[in-house]
Task: structure prediction
Amino acid sequence: MMQQYLSIKERYPDALLFYRMGDFYEMFFEDAQLASGVLEITLTSRNKHDESPVPMCGVPYRAAQAYISRLIESGYKVAICDQVEDPKAAKGLVKREVVRVVTPGMIVEDELLDAKTNNFILALSRHQHITGLASLDISTGAFRLTETADRNAIIDEIMRVAPREMLLPESLNADAAFTPFIKENLISAITVMEDRLFEFAGSRQRLLKQFDTLSLEGFGCESMKAGVGAAGALIHYVSETQCQKLEHLSAVQTYFLGQFLVVDDQSCRNLELSGNIRTGSRQGTLLGILDQTVTAMGGRLMAHWLRYPQLDPAPIQVRFDAVADAVGQMQTRRDLRESLKPVRDLERLGSKISMGHGNARDLTALKRSIQALTDVFSVLSSLSAAPYTYDRDTTKLHALADLIHRAIREDAPPVISEGGMIREGYDNGLDELIRISKDGKGWLAELEAKERNTTGINSLKVRYNKVFGYYIEVSRTHSESVPDHYIRKQTLVNAERYITDELKHFESRVLNAADQRNDLEMNIFVSIRDRVKAHHADIREVARFIARVDCLTTFAEVAQNNGYCRPKINTEGILEIREGRHPVVEKLITGERFVPNSIVMDNLKNQVLIITGPNMAGKSTVLRQVALVTIMAQMGSFVPAEKANIAITDRIFTRVGALDNLSAGQSTFMVEMQETANIVNNATEKSLVILDEIGRGTSTYDGLSIAWAVAEHLHDLNGTGTRTLFATHYHELTELENQLDRVKNYNIAVKEWNDEIIFLRKLVEGGTNRSYGIQVARLAGIPEPVIRRSKVILAQIEAGMHPRAAENNEAGTGSKKRKGHIQLGLFSPMERKLLESLQMLDLSRMTPIDALNLLNELQIKAQSDVN
Ligand code: ADP
Ligand code: MG
Result:
């Protein structure tokens, strides 16, 4: 047995091998040591008295699921090795095989999946300078591939897919410019495979075989060597781990990164699209507002739309039309949502069943979901937009539901090997077996009566237990009257137990019937499951339709409940939001009413908006609101505004100043600059850039200079500039309006009243030159003496005095005023020095050589300042 174990284990070196023995899965050697620790179960040993006992631990077969879950969640893989022949029939050692490897990216168990989140495994491959990326969720059948020459884009895409597991070719895994970033930033298991498994030719063959086609033309990826390489590697891994061909993977969807609005991972977090900054949960995020879907597949599609907003106006308009259709129809929506409630996760049910993992309860769930479709379709008939019409025939699905209804008991147990699944009347052979076991009861009662009669022992009983099977029990006092043909089996304190030939014969008939019944039920069940499997494509299509309907009507629901409007969209770079709101903040604030704001941007006069205003005025909120409204519009959703015209945007970049982002634990100036570099390098004239207090993480001069230079750069980017919203506390930046064509100043109005400030939260034209920091500090609860003192200091600084110097002055210790002067101009001390050296030059007394040398010196100084 150990030999068998070792030869199987050899093939799964990176998985924990669950080796089936009787009612347990056993683990040995290092696997046992590791698993006993993770699972907190006892480590024992086999052959205890040998010189080198084998460490071992085990989990009960029936409870295995919970243990597997814990191991997967801890990032391990589990290879499940079962007995593949009947132990009774086996000659010698029972044959065992690995029937499946469970890995974080290869999960079908509901307990391990979040209903509203896809569980992706992602593969990467390189072909020349192109990187291919493929992602797969076996629990739903979602399978996509893409490729690009842009390395940054690949990283963005990996973060967007957010896989639970990644497949890398050895060579990429060794690529120091690439892998460390992935390993640091993603919590996913990495599986490394040989490079050859990612090669185009072999991968293409695997895909053709999987899809049963002659070329990949139909999927639009015939010539995508890198993308196909990655997808083929996934198929290889699937067959290695699932030990079967997955019929439900019947197509791959090719996409291009340029088809969708890109919001890089950092910006997703800044904007709190699907996880809030504090805990990462959905609460207080855009997804939290939008995802009021009823079905699991609708929820997943909503999350997908959020990460992949469209760039092409046509599909966006189709969604708007569908939302508009449902907006006015409150009753229809209510009915629809009601009718969707009984629809279970058809996508995952279909996949599970087609992988042969579904049980009788899954079939019943499928049946009820299909039955519920009748109501769904009838409600949908009162909506007219195209996405509400299902154009495939559903008669086959209903026939399936009927079949399941006739065959499967609704109270079936979760295991499929112990009977109790198939209704009486469905199969004659089964009914016959059931009759035998039922008749058995009557027969026993008859036997008992007969034996009592012939022996005259009235307390004689016919009973059953697991050890002896059927027996006759007679109390001690009557053991004298027992007939000769009774064979004594057991003596108890007060009674004797016997068997007879007749009883033995009966027993084998009944027990056989029970065994046969279980086997037959399983066969019938599997044949029905196989018939369902044959209709997997129908199930998948209707699931997708339902998901879409759910999302679009949810958009309508959210739009009507929150007072959103249908936006216009344009490709001319015009962004105009009238009375817009922040969809999340408007829900979260308490005490005050949300003040809507209007904003206009274009690529002519209003391209770079500098927004000033004191802390807490609402700058960050306005900025984010513009980004969120843009994303919502490109998802096809209505938006929180009175009126909106949204410029189709290819990328949204956000940079949030260090102090605003403290909670994320990333306050270093370095991170800030890396992200700014990313913006400067990747923004186009179709992008939207949100800069919130950049430059805060360093000294005033550095910060201001960087902010200034970045603003200039974005204004001039590629000769056209890029739409930028720039919130800043550097009032100096308002000066840019006078210097650059397309810059405009705004501020968020506050009103001073009795030495306090009132936040009006209104965005108005023009800059500000006051920060009201002290008033804000008071609002924040800083004690009054500190506030008074800070006012004195402020007055002194504004008068051009260093506070200490001013005090010294008051104390009459002479004039240090000159030294204490605070220079808040635009020049840094170094620049000042350079200026001074220039001013002092006497050009008339200089030779050309002197001049050149001096110029060289100045340049070196100037460069050292920049560096
Ligand atoms: P800033 O970035 O200027 O410091 P924030 O945008 O962070 O200010 O806003 C601070 C708080 O003010 C927000 O948390 C919110 O509660 C409130 N707020 C912001 N904008 C509005 C608005 N338009 N209407 C009502 N309250 C708002
Ligand atoms: Mg802010």
In short: The domain at 110-259 is CATH 3.30.420.110 (Nucleotidyltransferase; domain 5). Confidence is low (pLDDT under 50) at residues 661-667, 806-825.
